[in-house]
Amino acid sequence: MFQNSSNLSHSHFQQNPRLKSYLCNHLSPNTESALLSHQQIIDPQYCLENSVDLLSGNLEALPAMEVLPLIYENSRPVHRSDAFMSFKGRKRSNEEAEPHQAKRQRFESNNSGTTVATQTLPLPEKQIYSFSESIQSPLFSAHYILDLTECVPLSEVLFSDPPGTTLPVATDKLSQQILELFQACQQHTCDLNRKELCRTELQKEIRKIFPSSRLFLIGSSLNGFGTRNSDGDLCLVLREEPINQKTEARYILSIIQNLFSTKLSNYIERPQLIRAKVPIVKFRDKVRQAFSSICVEFDLNVNSIVGIRNTFLLRTYAYMENRVRPLVLAVKKWASFHDINDASRGTLSSYSIVLMVLHYLQTLPEPILPSLQKIYPKSFDPAMQLHLVPQVPSTIPHYVSKNGSSLGDLLIGFFRYYATQFDWCHDMISVREARAIPRPDGTEWRNKFICVEEPFDGTNTARAVHEKYKFDIIRDEILKSWQVLENKKDLNYVLPLRAFIQKR
């Protein structure tokens, strides 16, 4: 899987100031520069298939390659070789883990049951899986046939913030504290690229079993609201339609879990199948830990396609106004500090918290965000083919708001809105509508304490808050934080900033 892994600790890079800056930004904060051609750096097939050699500086092991023309998109060079366009149903070949938790609501759907963590599903004794491109088993309700002609997965190039991304200017103490927290805790480009390298290698291995599958990196790692210790969420897509999560998904994941624990055991540790509402395989990537002291866990699900769509909806919101990401990160850290950011324990998921912040910014007298699904319905059509979804954020322009509120004022306003204005008993938080709307009269919403609408499938992302005393705790923390910040204008009174930054 990761060739030449024994060379991870060595460096043979020659000095080149121009490339040193590029590689340090995109690969590793400690990586020295390499004497590579521009084609070798940009070409995804070259970089990702030879990821460890490139990161370690083992350039002698890298194959020579022909320099091909570049296509420029959004002022950035993107190379796509002819091979990319000729694929037909295939592509190129914390110290201790925390207790397993329920999968975040962003990957859940209507057709699933109670969240329970159990042991791995038993596998047949025969451990060889050589399926053809049309797969059939007693548990599969349909053949898995996928035409990937000209389909570029979401992760074909190294990731970075969109061109022109800036941060707001802070003119007061509270705003400066929010920016300081954001800059210290936000996910670095090198963190994201290492997750992407893991995704690429795993996709190659999984395609030996499921030739037409695609593996997507999704969730907080990619939606713009990730931190340095965000989990890596992966979605394995076998077909672009729902599958039965209790039978098909669990069966497929049992095969993946077996692959990880046998063939890939030198690179993947602690792979476990979790029978959640949306079942997942949870694991760690050993190779990534060689480059970073931060241990990141991965969660892999099957065909939870709504997670792909909402990843890029949120990514568009994240980068269309420069106050959005710092504000969301501050609220997420606040919620985590006050122990109300854990859906498995009956409080709010990170996804619900993000939607709550976006909704607040949409409902201001002078909105800071619009409803993207109203303004650009075709771009966020739930029926859009998956290979087009990752392209959407680059097509949406920045939103110019007349609201000049500082980050500090917006944070205080967020707490004020949910402490005094929002009607928890009768209304639902809707980012899709950009307003609070009456709750539907259905089992998904009836007798629920918090209702947050999932923008694509219409489920309640906050349904984990099913006990009144947990809801009372959440409301009480919001009210107290509003009152303190309104009076003190100092983030340290609701979140010990220095200690939190050091512990990040």
UniProtKB/TrEMBL annotation:
Pfam families: MTPAP-like_central (PF22600), PAP_assoc (PF03828). The gene is Tent2. Its main location: cytoplasm. Its cofactor is Mg(2+); Mn(2+). Residues 174-318 form the Poly(A) RNA polymerase mitochondrial-like central palm domain. It catalyses: RNA(n) + ATP = RNA(n)-3'-adenine ribonucleotide + diphosphate. Residues 89-119 are annotated as: Disordered. Its EC number is 2.7.7.19. It is found in: Cytoplasm. One of its GO terms (cellular component) is cytoplasm. PANTHER family: POLY A POLYMERASE CID PAP -RELATED, POLY(A) RNA POLYMERASE GLD2. Keywords: ATP-binding, Cytoplasm, Magnesium, Manganese, Metal-binding, mRNA processing, Nucleotide-binding, Transferase. Belongs to the DNA polymerase type-B-like family. GLD2 subfamily. This is polynucleotide adenylyltransferase. The lineage of its organism: Eukaryota, Metazoa, Chordata, Craniata, Vertebrata. The keyword Cytoplasm applies. InterPro entries: MTPAP-like_central (IPR054708), NT_sf (IPR043519), PAP_assoc (IPR002058). Residues 406-460 form the PAP-associated domain. Residues 108-119 have a biased composition (Polar residues). The keyword NAD does not apply. Residues 92-107 have a biased composition (Basic and acidic residues).
